[in-house]
Amino acid sequence: MSTRIYTQPVDQTQWKVGTDGVTTFNWEYDEARDRLLSLYEKGKEKQWNTNTRLDWSIDVDPGSPENAPDYYIPIYGSEIYERMNEKERYELRHHMTGWLNSQFLHGEQGALVCTAQIVQSVPDVDCKFYAATQVMDEARHMETYSRYLREKVGLAYPINSNLQALLDDVVSDPRWDMTCLGMQIMIEGLALAAFALIRDFSEEPLAKAINAYVMQDEARHVAFGRLSLREYYPQLTQAERDEREEFIVHASYLMRDRLQGVEVWEHLGFPVEECREYTENSEMMAEFRKMLFSRIVPTVKDLGLFGPKVQEAFVDMGVIGFEDSNPDELSSADEQIAEDLERRHGAAPDEGEALADVDPERAAEVTATIQAGAEAT
Q: Residue 6, CB half-sphere, CA atoms under 13 Å: how many?
């Protein structure tokens, strides 16, 4: 991506991470797990070309309230927001659209790097097979969000410091399972929930289609993480599982604070501490943060990494109610919505058409699942 659309100097948009990774070769090709091979087959079949699948001729107004409801802007309802005129709110929406999609883009690059490391270090051939398909998925996602930012939004933000800190931890850890846990379960899990907010509530048809197709891929990625780790973690000692649970707690708090938009407040000259304080205490933002953990909590429980420290952290964040959600049902819903979108519209939904019009039953099912988890807290 050209750095000319960045809101900050180019020297703040790049960093390097040192690693001590181990490359594992495996010459035993005969034994493989059926579910992972089925996932690999699906990964091959579901590859898509962003240049032909999506309708890039759609006009996008980056400052329009159609991009996402205003109540998802972190400072919505604050005195700062209420004092703003429509021109100022338009600029704020534009920057929030650029900032949010930039974080999606940076997260996808992190996923690309991490999945390439998993191919290199994971000991099982069936895991290497599937991870190889995910590398291509992540490259396609990077290409897609990069093009959306360049051609439709016209500005971009560097990576959020919390996301950068988490990626530092994940990329630099030489253990394949920690890379998988950090990226496939934690970062991808949170991304799925954030993508769903755009897919389900935005009225901007290109963004809606992008996130529906990306979520179809990401649902497989999280499933891969669950399948590969669910068989591995019972082999670990209690001390090793404790270490991974401590990482989950650390990563959860980093991600909880990731989507506050501090970089936007700084760039637009807003009083940062006042904005930060409002977002910390906002009831709407509290519900928003809960929804972001709707995919992570049940998956962590499914992996057996649900000890007292993890549960205490999830209670503190108000997200423990998602523990009874079914990860398989959520993933199936994500894939079905994308398949229905592809079948009925080919490249993208008609301009102005809501996802509920594409598949109202499936959209209602996903929304009800997320809301049920939020209400249970």
A: 16
